[in-house]
Amino acid sequence: MLYVLLTLLVVTGATQALDEAVLHRLRPGDAWNDAQVLWSPWMSRLRPSRMYFLLAVTSVVVSLWRRSWWPSFLGLALAGVSGVVALATKVAVHRPDPHGYVTESGGAYPSGHTVALVVCLSGCLLVCWPRVRWWLWAPVLAATALLTTALLVAGAHWLTDLVGGLLLAFAVVAGYSRTALRRKAHRQPPRTGEDARPPSDTAVIDR
Q: How many domains does the chain have?
């Protein structure tokens, strides 16, 4: 698994030279300039709490519409599994961010912002559509590009933090896209009332 391989490279320090080169390229001398002013607000606009809230609301609305709680279970599974794996990795790797700071929830690897955004936006698509058309992924790609650029330009994460977050998110989304849980989330509710009545003899004759 690519995520495991990258994690091992990060732990051994094999990626540090690349990470530092990219950071220096985007923030020479670690100075705050117009680029940071332009891009950094996207870190707040696309923060994890908003992404998880969006997935939760979408899952509940779809559950009510389909009269089934399976869509909510799918959304919960996506958020829960990705969050637990990301948090466990953060605690295990305990990697400082480019400024040498380690948060109380763990290190910088993988990027929690990236995991939350990709999993939650992709999760909304998986919950809403049984077959996701290719063009529906465009907003996910656009939001991911905005967030990763902002995190890099602001120096909030190393490059490999973001790549690790993407790999983890892709693995979770791809895995749940083919599970029985997703099939149950798109199962049509049983018909009731007039819709549930079998066709009458007259209707059969008329046909």
A: 1
